[in-house]
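Here's what a typical entry looks like (20753_t:CDS:1):
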Amino acid sequence: GNAEERGKVEEVDFSPGWRGERNETGLGQLRKIFKTIKAYAAPIWIVNFVEGTRLTSRKLLESQKFARERGLPILRNLLLPRTKGFVACVRQLRNAHVQYVYDFTIAYRHITQGFQFPPNLLQVHSYSPITPPWSFH
């Protein structure tokens, strides 16, 4: 038959250092996923969480230390972006059917608890628009 795949979710997880067996497995997964995408010229959306994690006080301090050591801007309300995953995806898409790459950031702040209280996906799509617990930018 003419089965058509309407939606498929693939997830590849890389630790920040991109070292070790786990990341070699991740790179293999990435290559396999993109090989399929290119072979079928499938229309795709890739959601890339370049920070790779949720903001916490400890992670913010680590990010600020990393930035300070490298002369980068010291950010107060978000982590420095991690670009290796994005670069790996773009490299895999070279000479493919993909014509556009859009980059955007979604910022959130809990109305009473601040930046370090992230919503989960269900909360993002189900809160009351009259009294939202988070503001999004």
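Helices lie at 20-40, 57-70, 84-93, 121-126.

More examples are in the samples folder.
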